[in-house]
Amino acid sequence: MSKVITFSTSFMKNHPKAGEPTHFVEKIIAGMLQNPAMKNHQSLCGYDNLALMDCHLPKSTTIRAGKNWSVGDKFSPRIWSGRPYCSPQKQICDDIEIKRVYDFKYNGFFWINGNIVSTSELITVANNDGLTLEDFWAWFKKSHFEGQLLVWDERIYY
Length: 158
Fold this sequence. Notes:
By secondary structure, the chain is an alpha+beta fold.
């Protein structure tokens, strides 16, 4: 049985781009279309436009609070059809399998599996998450965060 992960369709209110679209749905689908192992995924829920392959920052990872995920778990990627938590969810595509799970921490510095992340590595982490480095920093400007970095593209390693 898969778990649900909802993705934001717009930047949150405390982000400098508050209210602007994240384009996470298109970025997730673009990442799937660019991945030979996922290109023939059962259902892209109507998002089979090859123009998505030109997406600047495809999304093949997500970062979630807690320690709730393991390699091999599947998730149902969804968005809210309207106001978050007050509207039905819409499934983006069929369930996706998690290929790798990394511990992720922010406490003024970013850490993956207990190792501090360099600026060049952080750019890669942000881009794989479908964000620019600036947007990634703004997303995690909290003073402390602990969770997991989930990867569904088998070509991505940290």
